[in-house]
Amino acid sequence: MDKLILLQKYTSKRDLVVQALREMILSGQLVPGQRLRQEQLSRMLGVSATPIREAIRLLEADGLVHGETHCGVSVVEISADEFQDISRIRAMLEGLATRQAVDRCDPQAYATLLERLVDLQCQMEKCVESQSLEPVANLNREFHLSLYDLSFSPYLIDMIRRLWMHLPGYMIWENPDLAATSIEQHKPILGALRARHAEAAAHAMQVHIELSAVAFLKNLRERE
User: Fold this and answer.
1) Sequential DSSP letters for 8-28
2) CA atoms of 111 and 89, how far apart (whole Å)
């Protein structure tokens, strides 16, 4: 945790720290259960203790970190049961967002979206073929969230993004077999999107999330 991280300009130092810590949690640089020490974070991010404390309070409100008296603050650990619960909710919400994106998006924006999704899928497949999995987490996140953004439902999008913050996605993308299987499951989604079949696309998305959750939990138990 002593590596210096250069922060891009944001709206405030607090927001810079929130963004950096959130990305570190999502990428696995900060792992579940890991203690967050303010002195180390201050050195790493090049800011004083005040924005660190403010950022930690916001991340605690989001459920990403947890503080206990006399124990400090640590990254929240998600149990297998909690992960299953999140996955069930994701399947319903993301299926709905997919259906609404197909139904509500105008033809020009839909064509642009589809072109982008195909490009992202190709990039992910190349990463798997070359065993260069590091970029896949961000590519996959863009694949999903850019589709949901066109559901034109701000509350739905916000709920989905909040759930994604709790996913240990890096543990999927560091495993070549899990990564390849998950990316392969995008193909039925793309097929339904090409046909602009809302129900089929929503169903394919739900199946993808459910199967990914089963595979992830199986891999997690084997690791334990």
Assistant:
1) PP-S-HHHHHHHHHHHHHHHT
2) 28
Q: Which residue is it, tokens 């989604």?
A: 189
* Per-residue H/E/C for 126-194: HHHHCCCCCCHHHHHHHHHHHHHHCCCCHHHHHHHHHHHCCCCCHHHHCCHHHHHHHHHCHHHHHHHHH
Using CA atoms, how far residue 190 sits from 79, 97, 141, 186, in Å, is: 31, 15, 15, 6
Neighbours of 115 (CB within 10 A): 10
Helix (H) or strand (E) holding 66: strand 65-68
From residue 198, alpha-carbon distances to 18, 149, 191 in Å are 36, 15, 11
Say whether 32 sits in a helix, a strand or coil: coil
Residue 10, pLDDT above cutoff 50: no
What letters, b where the CB count within 10 A reaches 16 and e where it falls short, cover 133-157? beebbebbbebbeebbbbbebeebb
Tokens of 143: 């694949």
Six-digit token string for 208: 């993808």
Residue 170 has pLDDT above 80, yes or no: no
Burial (CB count <10 Å: 0-12, 13-18, 19+), residue 117:
buried
Single pTM value for the model? 0.83
Q: Is 35 helix (H, G, I), strand (E, B) or coil?
A: strand
Q: Which H or E element spans position 218?
A: helix 198-223
The C-alpha atoms of residue 201 and residue 178 are separated, in whole angstroms, by 22
